[in-house]
Amino acid sequence: MRRPPHVVSGAYAPPAARRELVAVSADGARLHVEVHGAEGAPAVVLAHGWTCSTAFWAAQIRALTATHRVVAYDQRGHGRSPAARTHSTTALADDLVAVLEAALAPGERAVVAGHSMGGMTIMAAAARPEFTEHAAAALLCSTGSSRLVDEAQVLPVRAGRARTRVTGAVLGARAPLGPVTPVARKILKYATMGPGSAPDKVEACARIVHACPTGVRHAWSQVLAGLDLDADVARLAVPTAVIGGTADRLTPIVHARALAAALPNCVGLTELTGMGHMTPIEAPEAVTGALRELAELYLHTTGTGLDTTEKEKTP
């Protein structure tokens, strides 16, 4: 019997959504969207990364829904969103603004957070009018804007053309990942998580990643291999916080530092010692805390959830 695509108990088991909806992107792609928490509460929108799903944000959803309305969606081809023909950063931006328009009221603002490819989604959408209408602040977790394959440290060899070539082949492999076995857990932990990651966190990540269809994983790997969103970072004008793990092999901490330096309105860089690429699961309290702080600083609600204004951050 096939195992569920996520753990079904514990802190990393995704809670049931209060309601679900479908957002339709510019090219007709249909995106599964979940809404958690009370209507009228300050809104947080979550975009997951490559090979993941809404289940990846389970810890943040559980922690925030008592005081916030949390919107999480499956990127095209991931989770419960059907695969689509188009794979590009333009499509990622189209999808995000479609979700914002479907889940938020006109003029309603939210904290928008993205992990890995989800962070790249935010960068790609930065100049869209729909994004600027709805985004009060942003959080970029374990992500980068360019040179992903060049900088990746998945292979323990010296940087150079050979490492880049082999890394690209490994990350873009068409071979299925297969079942979650002890060996598979060790490989995933080495490649994507810090050495001190607890077994329940490794299991949660492995279930999610292994559930991603092989064709979808490969198609998006090609987009990430050629990623260049450096110009888009300069257009991300909303207050933006950056989080990275010092033991991240997929998007090493140099990416987080580069983003913090390039963003026009960076409000903080958090380097999580010993953490890898899967920061929302590896360090759930830190990521949730950053979301809470951004919401407190940059969202204000009168109780309807529709009257939102930016607050100034005190020094």
Kindly describe this structure.
With 315 residues, this protein is of the alpha/beta class. 38% of the residues lie in helices and 16% in strands. It contains 13 helices and eight strands. It has helices at residues 58-64, 89-103, 117-125, 129-134, 148-151, 161-171, 182-192, 199-210, 214-225, 230-233, 253-262, 279-282, 284-298; strands spanning 19-24, 30-36, 43-47, 69-73, 110-115, 135-141, 240-245, 266-272. It has an eight-stranded mixed beta sheet with strand order 1-2-4-3-5-6-7-8, with helices on both faces. Strand 7, helix 11 (253-262) and strand 8 (266-272) form a beta-alpha-beta unit. Helix 1 (58-64) crosses helix 13, helix 2 crosses helix 3 (117-125) and helix 7 (182-192) crosses helix 8. The chain is globular and about 50 Å long.
Break the fold down into its secondary structure elements and pairings.
Blueprint: E1 19-24, E2 30-36, E3 43-47, H1 58-64, E4 69-73, H2 89-103, E5 110-115, H3 117-125, H4 129-134, E6 135-141, H5 148-151, H6 161-171, H7 182-192, H8 199-210, H9 214-225, H10 230-233, E7 240-245, H11 253-262, E8 266-272, H12 279-282, H13 284-298
Parallel strand pairs: 3-4, 3-5, 5-6, 6-7, 7-8
Antiparallel strand pairs: 1-2, 2-4
Helix pairs in contact: 1-13, 2-3, 7-8
